[in-house]
Amino acid sequence: MRQPEDKATAAGLAALLIWSSSVALTRGVSESMGLITGPALASFIGGALALALVRLRGGRISAMLHLPPKYLYGCGALFVSCNVSLYLAVGACAERSQTLVIALVNYLWPVLTVALSVPILGRKARSWLPWGCLVAATGTAVALLGGTPHAAADIGFWATGRGLFALAMGLTAAVSWGLYSNLARLWGDPERGAVPLFALATAAAMGMLLLLRPEAPRWCLRALLEVTALGMASLMAAYALWDLGMRRGDHAFLGVCSYFVPVSSTLFSSLYLGVRPGWHVLTGCVLVAAGALMSSRALARD
Fold first, then answer.
1. Every domain of the chain and the residues it spans
2. Of 16, 80, 25, which is closest to residue 228 (Cα–Cα)?
């Protein structure tokens, strides 16, 4: 593997580690600052800081507007769709335990990234790829659903309008990011991306929703720290790193490694949100690792 590809792949791996904290932080922000206000502010912070970093490095912001239109508008729309949907899904949960279930739905995106790379990027896959995807998805389900101590009581929630809305938004986020991760490779420029603009577009979309549904956020030190961390880490750093990894790194390897995000996210969320982990974590880790190995062997490398 060439050195530039090595660095891009490392960037993608760093994004996966950062994303392990995103669901927990999103829930914390939604609880304190509102379903829309907190995510909108986090998106603005992430996009604004990312643009400032581009300028400090001597880059031209206007150059982003000259990227391939398919990437700029197509991937931009998918980026906004993914983030807005995930924020709404997490914020719509009535209990913290339900957040882990929504995370399960959202974390179908690693499976979709690998599976969609076959028709979109022309990857060659062996016959057991579907089984690898199934095993990894089962591991995700065990790791997340097994960690909800009130799962039986939550079943009724998913049949309500609010629960169905949360599930639909979580699925939309997963499909959007699975498509983005492949189309950024197909349509993007290997040398630069437009994640700062995408983050600001997300903030604008959330702002428009806020006009339709005004909120009264509770301002406190913890809320400010959470929204800043979400904006700086998840939106400024992680998405830019993942975008670089998708455009220039080892796409197949990163797709497989992304299977492990649900497990690391469950561990972090369990600690941060106070959801007690149990046997499901170890079982989920084994299944996810097995599914990742199967998928890695099934997908041919570039």
1. 3-298
2. 25
